[in-house]
Each structure stands twice: as C-alpha cells, then as structure tokens.
Amino acid sequence: MIRSMMASALLAPTAMAMVAAPVPAMAQAGGDLAAVQRSLQALTTMTADFTQTDRAGKVLTGTLTMKKPGKIRFQYEKGVPLLIVADGGALTFIDYSVRQVQRWPIKNSPLGVLIDPSRDIGRYAKVVPSADSRLLSVEANDPKHPEYGKITLVFARDAAAPGGLMLQGWVALDSQNNRTTIRLSNQRYGVAVDDKAFRFNDPRRSAARN
C-alpha cells in the first residue's frame, strides 16, 4: 500500500511530462496559468512540512526540501523506512526495509513541474475553476493516455510568496482512481539549502558488504 501510494503521489508518469498539445483556455484562466508559471520560475528553494494521505485515509508526515533546478527530498517521519530524493538528474525512491531502489527520469515525473524552471506548463495544464478566489488550482492530464493519471497543484494567492502564489500541495489520481493528497505547511522560500541535502545512503551497498 505504501509503495503504491508513493507511485501515485510522486513518481508515476503523468501529463506533466508527456502532453505536448496546447490546452485551450479563456483569457482569465490563461492569465492565472501564466501566474502559476511565473511563480514556479521565481521559486528557487523551499522547505516545508508535508502530510500525505491515501484514499484509505492512511497518513504519513515528513519534511520537504527543494532546490532548483532538479533537486527535491521527501524525508518521512521517524519509523517510516522510505525516502524520495532527486539530485538534479533522476528521481529516486528508496525503501530501506527491503533495500529496494527505483529511479525515474525527473522529466517522467509530475514533480518535474516543480523543480524544472524551464518547463512550460501552458503546454499540458489548465486552470480548474474554484469557488474560493483565494485559491488557484492547475490540473494536468492527457485524455489520450488515461494510464498516466492526473495531478492537480493547489496554490494560495499570497503576495509574500514567489510570484504571488504559495504552493499548498497537490492531489494525484492514478488510472485506478487511487487518490493521494499532499498538503504543505510551514512553507519557507529562498532559504539556504546545501546540495548535501539531496544525497542518500544506498541500501544495496550495505547489503553487498554483508
């Protein structure tokens, strides 16, 4: 269940990596989409606490560290033997309980939109209407490839955040309709982040020595 949740929330290829066709949009929606693009481009580093919830209600917590371009780390709470980290090239999922390591190109992950400042979200995303004018949601999916799933990024309008938008989290829906929600809190932008934060201990090496 936990491994499936990781794939749904963070690793499975989605329209963020795959869709190339432009998405028609109304003028206001287009302006909001451009605002999201500016916010993502303005974001250089960020740290936050996160809460991850799957469709069964299972909750995991941890800390998020991001440094662009291409670096991110999900450090799970004590007792959870999982780690997700990107070092600028590949996104790596480590399960220390079974000494398993899986890697994906960042471009094939929905997280690519967060840590690749050159990504043009206008090619694969659309604004989702909201009854709350303080929030802005952007959804990405490829109707030609439902197996890629769908992801929706949620922002709050905040003049103090990069580009005037603060990332609140995202919701991922895979092709089996398994929903995973990531919520962020205590976001801090522009903080000093050492590249060492994106290193990890490879459990396969320790296994080879045993």
TrEMBL record:
CDD domains (alphabetical): LolA
Keyword presence, Lipoprotein: yes
Signal peptide: 1-27
Database matches in PANTHER family: OUTER-MEMBRANE LIPOPROTEIN CARRIER PROTEIN (PTHR35869)
Keyword Repeat in annotation: no
Protein name in UniProt: Outer membrane lipoprotein-sorting protein
Keywords, sorted A to Z: Lipoprotein, Signal
